[in-house]
Amino acid sequence: MSFGEQPLFTTKAHVFQIDPETKKNWVPVSKTAVSVSYYYDTTRDTYRIISVDGSKAIVNSTITPTMTFTKTSQKFGQWSDSRANTVYGLGFTSESELSKFIEKFKEIKELTRNSAQKNTEVNGVTDNHLPPQPQSPGRQVFHQRTSSWSSSQSDSGSLRERRNSYTQGSTSTNLPPNASEGQLKYENDRLKLALAQSSSNAKKWEVELQTLKNNNARLTAALQESTANVEEWKKQLATYKEEGSRMKKKVLELESKEMTADQTEEFKHKVKQLTDQVEKLHDETSRKQEDINKLKKEVYDLNKKESNSTALQARIQVLEEENHSLSIKVQDLQRLLKECRLTRESENQDVLTLQATLGSKITELYELHEQIVSTVKKESQS
Fold it and tell me: Is the dihedral of CA 46, 48, 52, 58 positive or negative?
């Protein structure tokens, strides 16, 4: 698991993208307000804006020194990403949220500009803008206990009021979240992004493979039809040849006999017609043979593409296995995140129990102190 990227700032907003056809209308990408976060990659020294809706990454934009975020209305802003070849838009619930996002954008843009100019200062700039480390629970609990002890000594009210005040102070204590929970959420988002991209590529290759199969089937059917037509034409050609031979024999028989000039001309005309028909069939057969050769070449090309499609199928299978592996990792991260939350809640409950116990012990000590003081006063007066 890689923890190279760290969350810097997170807010809620509706995400839009510019219509790629009209370049004027906004197309909503998320149905509801989703989390939009700034992340810093310590390995690549880059800042990104990332937003994930379910298992789909709807924003993945790397901030550059030339990028500009423009406020177009009271609660709406936009920026152009040349690498993604699109324009993103964010709709916020209030103007203050938009202002915070713009201030953070300007701050990170300045960091990217300084990083490009002075590579030696990258580590210092990054450390100054990392999210503040949460105060440890032990220090907060100790501070709360000290404040309660001072209050119990200086309070002039009744013992019951001081005890109630301490109990209320203990109940309102909020423990800081686990520092690794943000990293687990980000890693979960990254795996969802990789899963969505792999699924998109697999679907694209499946469509291309299906297109190749359809073209192959169509050309194969055309080749079979042309082959059947050629066989039929060959049969007709053989029939015409037989008819021509028969007519030639008949002409020779008639020539050997005494015939009139009209009968001779009539037979010669029929022979000429049959000869023309045979020549036409020869020409047509030659053309059809050329068509068959072309179709055979196309079928050969399609078979070659089909072999390539087999390799694509193997690649698709590998991608499906990778998708399955990524899905398992996402499930493991979600389970780990849930366990972390349960552990944190259990620790919070244990701390609250300890605080309540400490409050009762302090109360008992105070009562014992009052009794000792009273006893000492009585003995000194007697």
Answer: negative
